[in-house]
């Protein structure tokens, strides 16, 4: 899941349990819809992307830079994990909001397409609730 700064889900995806999170980053970034702004043209992609140490790969950093996205990804051996909590809590909170919806939380569906559809509906409900209050 990719969220914006306040925790609204921008892109959501599912994968098999035995795949690494870094393999799902490119489809998620491609799935981000155009961002509506008050003035000027619509932005097609975010300006920067924060990630934890699981996304620390040179190919991902180069791919993000080729799309004009500044990667803010913690280095595996160099940086400590203490600073990750500054931005990671918004994603963790959004995942907790998704777990509050019963159907995606229990995984009733056998087909991945159905599960992804219900997760998208739950994300739309989260956006609706956040934007109406």
Folded structure, characterized:
It is built from 5 helices and 4 strands; from the N terminus they run ββαβαβααα. By secondary structure, the protein is mainly α. The strands form 2 sheets. A two-stranded antiparallel sheet has the order 1-2. It has a two-stranded parallel ribbon with strand order 3-4. The longest helix has 21 residues, at 112-132. The mean pLDDT is 81.
In short:
This protein is mainly alpha-helical. The chain has helices at 25-30, 58-66, 85-99, 102-106, 112-132; strands spanning 2-3, 9-11, 48-51, 70-73. The protein has five helices and four strands, in the order ββαβαβααα.
Stretches with pLDDT under 50, minimum 5 residues: none
Strand order of the largest sheet: 1-2
Radius of gyration: 16 Å
What series of H and E elements makes up the topology? EEHEHEHHH
Number of helices: 5
**Mean of all residue-level pLDDT scores:** 81
Tally of DSSP β-strands: 4
Structural class: mainly alpha
Strand content: 5-15%
What is the general shape?
Answer: globular
Biggest β-sheet strands, sense, barrel: 2 strands, antiparallel
* Ends apart, CA distance between termini: 23 Å
**Percent helix:** 40-55%
Biased composition (Basic residues): 36-48
Domain Transposase IS4-like: 3-126
Protein name: IS5 family transposase
Region (Disordered): 24-51
């Amino acid at each position: 899941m990719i969220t914006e700064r306040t925790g609204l889900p921008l892109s959501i995806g599912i994968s098999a349990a035995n795949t690494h999170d870094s393999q799902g980053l490119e489809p998620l970034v491609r799935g981000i819809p155009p961002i509506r702004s008050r003035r000027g043209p619509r932005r097609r992609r975010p300006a920067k992307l924060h990630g934890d140490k699981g996304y620390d790969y040179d190919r991902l950093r180069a791919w993000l830079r080729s799309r004009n996205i500044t990667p803010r990804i913690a280095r595996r051996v160099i940086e400590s994990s203490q600073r990750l909590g500054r931005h990671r809590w918004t994603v963790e909170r959004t995942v907790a909001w998704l777990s509050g919806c019963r159907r995606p939380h229990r995984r009733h569906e056998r087909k991945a397409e159905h599960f992804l559809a219900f997760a998208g509906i739950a994300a739309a409900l989260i956006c609706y609730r956040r934007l109406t209050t």
